[in-house]
Design goal:
mainly alpha; 3 helices; about 110 residues
Length: about 110
């Protein structure tokens, strides 16, 4: 019963709302809005392509810098140790000259 009363009140309230029957649109403004939207889509697409290219270049640059720094650090840290090992092997060889191939193989195996 309560539902029927609520439905009746809703129907009466809906009849009292004025409905606009002659709606007109500004077609020129709608066309302009559509063209502005299309221009924005093209512009954003071009920017996205440019940003993707810049990101690829930045990744390559960052990785290259990382690899160079890794090799420089390795050279700074292990260069003196390798030099010491070569000098030690030269000092320990009986004739003062060393078989470089055997020494290199020995150091690399160590």
């Amino acid at each position: 019963m309560k539902f029927a009363v609520a439905a009746l009140l809703g129907y009466v309230a809906a009849e009292q709302i004025a409905v606009v029957e002659n709606i007109s649109f500004n077609q020129g403004a709608l066309d302009h809005a559509a063209s502005v939207g299309q221009d924005a889509v093209h512009e954003l697409s071009d920017e996205a392509k440019l940003n993707a290219k810049k990101n690829r270049e930045a990744i390559v640059d960052a990785y290259s810098t990382y690899i160079v720094e890794e090799h420089v650090g390795f050279s700074k840290n292990f260069g003196p140790l390798v030099k010491f090992q070569v000098e030690m092997i030269d000092a320990m060889s009986p004739a003062g000259n060393c078989d470089q191939k055997k020494a290199t193989k020995c150091v690399n195996a160590w």
